[in-house]
Specification:
By secondary structure, this protein is an all-beta fold. Strands 1, 2, 52, 53, 54 and 55 form a six-stranded antiparallel sheet that branches. Strands 7, 8, 9, 10 and 11 form a five-stranded antiparallel sheet that branches. The chain is 1% helix and 49% strand. It has one helix and 55 strands.
Length: 506
């Protein structure tokens, strides 16, 4: 039975906790789970259960195919009926195909969740398809492609010999993908298709990206063994290779600034490397660190890490900094006016903020700016102590390592700090190991899941515990009023919980 039920008796900090029973969970020995903060999906062999509501039965569900949109309002997966595959979006079946192409996740949602896309193939039937006992010796026969298409919001695009997984702009109104003509490497050519319009053919097409506003597109291409960046349809300078790197947030490809006005990437010139920003090259270096360049939030600054010989430097807006053995974790303040990173020197780590070195420690992690950009803080390790450091001044110290593993949040003005159960240096009740931490957008509140020795789990919000469950299934998500939402299991049922902030400070 689906519907709201009465909450459990409140515990400390759990006044007015709201529970909604979403339904019973199936109990099978082999299940595949996928979850978001808002929703919980259970994949059995032939069906999908979302938030306790079981969907239709099929021959099978493709392993790893269940995905949710970023806003959690839509879901999709790949199902099989007889020998055909099809995509199911919000319970609605799409066209049938022989193959859904690409890599995980096969189905792509736009950032706003309003649009989806995927690649698909149908093959021409052969006499081998009618043979119930095909030969098992020798290579499998090459199947002729009848059509390879990209499907956007359930509608097929133009057919090609092969297509790569599409990408969508943030608002989902723009779609781009790589189309391939030819079935052998000797005759293979590639082109980019943007909103149904074809770009020229190239020998190879690599990384493909939309700008944040969706109005610009960039990709790498190869012709006559030289690589170049194509930006808004214009071919750039040729290089021996353009590096496909992975900046923060897992993005792969050319990097646009947040205002969509600037583009940066790495390139190889012989044995040297350069950073190219808006078509202008940096000096040549032996190596460019793979997680750079990065743009500042205001789009006015760009930074990267470069290596010459055995030393690395951080370069900010073309100005090189001091040399270190290694440099990691570059970060800008929210307003883009300040810049920090961690440098290695003589086997020690140093926080470098606006070009000024802080104290040396055995280890440093989680360097960050306060929301107003006036303060910088990080956790450091010295001998066996874990230390909280703010503006180069040491604060709380602990002998063990829960501080480093538990995370922390800082109030926007930098006046208050929360380390898990420690608020402004005052320790709360002791809990078992923590997991699935989340901080509120304004960084004033901290929530995480705590495991007890009795195998019960609960969420701690600003140091106070919520109701107990057999298992917490999703990371706590902060809502606009700073209450948190998560899913949990108790007595074979799945519940959605809304846990408010504590009425009084712990």
């Amino acid at each position: 039975m689906i519907g709201p039920v009465k909450a459990q008796p409140p515990v400390a900090g759990s006044q007015s906790v709201k529970e909604e029973r979403l339904g019973d969970l199936p109990d099978f020995p082999a299940l595949t789970y996928i979850d978001r903060s808002e929703h919980f999906g259970v994949v059995e062999r032939g069906s999908v259960t979302i938030d306790g509501k079981k969907g239709p039965d099929y021959n099978s569900i493709e392993i790893g195919s269940l995905v949710f949109s970023n806003d959690g309002r839509h879901f999709a997966y790949i199902a099989r009926r007889d020998l055909k595959l099809f995509v199911v979006v919000d319970g609605k079946e799409g066209p049938e195909y022989d193959e859904i192409t690409g890599s995980m996740p096969w189905i792509v949602f736009s950032a706003n969740g309003e649009h989806f896309a995927y690649g698909a193939v149908n093959y021409a039937k052969t006499t081998a398809d009618a043979n119930p006992h095909p030969p098992t010796i020798g290579p499998p026969p090459i199947r002729k492609v009848l059509k390879a298409v990209v499907v956007v919001d359930g509608k097929e695009g133009q057919s090609y010999d092969s297509v790569r997984k599409p990408i969508l702009s943030l608002d989902g109104t723009q779609v781009a993908y790589v189309a391939i003509t030819g079935v052998t490497y000797t005759g293979l050519k590639m082109k980019v298709v943007i909103n149904g319009k074809e770009d020229p053919l190239y020998d190879m097409v690599g990384a493909l990206a939309f700008s944040p506003d969706g109005k610009r597109v960039a990709y790498t291409a190869t012709k006559d063994r030289k690589e170049f960046m194509v930006v808004d349809g214009k071919i750039g300078q040729t290089y021996d290779q353009i590096t496909i790197f992975a900046p923060p947030l897992g993005f792969i490809g050319p990097v646009f600034s947040s205002n969509s006005q600037h583009l940066a990437y790495q390139a190889h010139k012989g044995q040297k490397m350069v950073v190219v920003v808006d078509g202008k090259e940096s000096p040549e270096y032996d190596q460019i660190e793979e997680r750079s360049p990065i743009f500042s939030p205001d789009s006015q600054g760009v930074a990267y890490v470069a290596r010459t010989g055995k030393k690395e430097i951080a370069v900010l807006n073309g100005v090189p900094g001091a040399e270190y053995d290694a440099i990691r974790d570059m970060v800008f303040s929210g307003d883009g006016q300040r810049f920090a990173y961690i440098g290695w020197k003589d086997k020690k780590k140093i926080a470098v903020v606006d070009g000024k070195e802080g104290p040396a420690y055995d280890d440093i992690s989680e360097i960050s700016f306060s929301q107003d950009g006036k303060h910088v803080f990080y956790t450091a390790n010295k001998y066996k102590e874990q230390i909280y450091v703010m503006d180069d001044k040491e604060g709380m110290k602990y002998l063990a390592d829960p501080v480093a593993s538990a995370g922390f949040v800082l109030s926007p003005d930098g006046r208050h700090v929360v380390f898990a159960d420690v608020i402004d240096g005052k320790e709360g009740p002791e809990h078992e190991p923590r997991r699935w931490e989340a901080s509120s957008p304004d960084r004033k509140h901290l929530a995480y899941v705590s495991d007890k020795k009795t195998n019960e789990q609960y969420v701690i919000l600003d140091g106070q515990s919520g109701p107990k469950y057999k298992e917490i299934e999703t990371t706590p998500k902060f809502l606009p009023d700073n209450s948190i939402e998560y899913l949990a299991i108790r007595d074979g049922g799945l519940y959605r919980i809304i846990q408010p902030l504590p009425a009084t400070p712990p």
